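yo

u said u wanted the structure for the complex thing, so here. seqs first:
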Amino acid sequence: MSLADTLQRIDDVTWELPRSGGMRVSGRILADESIIEALHTDQSLEQVANVAHLPGIVGHSWAMPDVHYGYGFPIGGVAAFRVSDGVVSPGGVGYDINCGVRLLATSLTFADLADRDRRKKVVDQLFRDVPSGVGSSGAIRRLTRKELADLLVAGAGWAVENGFGRPEHLVRAESNGALPGADPEVVSDRAIERGLGQVGTLGSGNHFLELQVVDEIFDPPTAEVYGLHEGQITIMIHCGSRGFGYQVCDDYLAVMAGAAKKYGFELPDPQLVCAPVGSEEGRRYLGAMAAAANYAWANRQIIMDLAERALRHSLSANSADLDVRLVYDVAHNIAKIEEHEIEGRSIALCVHRKGATRAFPPNRPEVPEPYRDTGQPVLIPGDMGTASFVCRGTQTALAKTFGSTAHGAGRVMSRSKALKSARGRHIDRELAEAGILVRSQGKKTLAEEMPEAYKDIERVAEIVDRADVSPRVARLRPIGVVKG
Amino acid sequence: MVSRWATLPRDESFRELDHPADVFLELRGRDLAELYLNGLFGLYAQVIELTGVRLEQIRPVHGSGDDPAGTLRSLLAEALYLFETERFVAGGAVIDHATEKSAGASLWGETFSPEKHERLLEVKAVTYHQLKAWRTESGEWRATLIFDV
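structre next:
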């Protein structure tokens, strides 16, 4: 009998994975029948169960509807540990620390870019001005070590101070674009070396910059507060902390392997290596992770500025004409110390969101003032041929999933299968026929990232809506894509 | 003598196993030295099109670990670091020494240039996931590893 056979349905879209063996809490999955069916052939439920073994876990070990097999923790996993006696684990954050999404609104409408040549000019300029792909660098000059140390502490604020964007952008980013507690002193020299030349670059794989059009509004009052309306042109940026974050994760997996032995943790999977939140190892990891998170926020802030300049240049427009505004910026690979109510008491938790997005409700102090009445915007990107969603955070999410929801579509097809399936096809032409202009640096990227390689984002968005953890506000359809 | 990737038999050096998101490789080697060599081959084959790389410069890399799998991972992480920091891509290599706990290689290649080299995937990290190395009954070596991409 597989773990999937033990699942018990609790409500329309919530399933319970009962406690067994050394699980300290049960698992919970947000899904519909088809997603549960797919979990029979996947090992992510085992990973949900493994996470439930870790010391200090509270509530449930959660999986979002886009769950898939990761390293140690599943991708799409959410787990919260008491700061007092719980753990922090690099595997619960992932290699790409603060991989996340930033959404920009403009005053342009689809009518402004309906002309294909004009649209092509914009996409080509974005492709030229925002470095992407393997080995990409050079958007801004290589930083000095001192500059990088300042960036690691100030995050997006460093970018704004250095001429990339405006101060008002900072209030519309999760954690104001900088986690407190970042400590460049606990970051290895290797991470610093990897980080010096990559600021302001997209990277490759599933990272992207998209030109989109708002094609459906589900919740008009909230959309109005977010500054979104039907037919409007938006820009979405998906990337993270580049080689800097990967190296921080790599370094601390080795540190945590020693720590797990030192503290006598019995782990069901060696990749769940962890340390008590308050231990020397735990504090050092959180300081390095915050530095990487801040690198990612600075990166997305700079890319936003590069994109805005590219838009102005390609359309021969000025700032006032385009009115590019930041809607929001979310992290979807991160561990954060947050206050949550557990059994009637407010306690400090270390909430791990690995491939999961924070979805805080109205009136929560962390939600920026402009969104205090609606709840924070939640950005859930889809594949390059379908759509992305803007949702809103809710009280249900806060009470149920530690204020968390899905982060994207999640792959269903391996890269090699996608390559085989694309043989003899021209993915770029197929997308162009659907009105989506794509530009990619990598020879195989378009085939590997083709829409069929991903889960149906519409289903993911529908489930988080039905679960009321992040109801849909708007649907964004891609019309131009820049890939690495 | 330098083993040049473009002339090595790819199918006999490594094969790609199914993985939903990342690159999962099984490496082969008649001995440890060949296993480590094929690990480097498998890494660079993900990053760029190998036929266009010129063997103009040499860079030494070292790896160490508690066992062959750990040594292999450490060696490849070192090569990846060299690519990320110096943009050095290898078109071939010589394994200078190979033991279960230590390996050294001389990488032959050149500085990466987006104008000259065909880019493929960005490897974020050489993970610990499915990281194994073992000896077959016939005395050859096999290893599995996953690149996070």
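Chain B touches chain A through 31 residues (CB under 8 Å). The helical segments of chain B are 10-13, 32-47, 68-86.
cya
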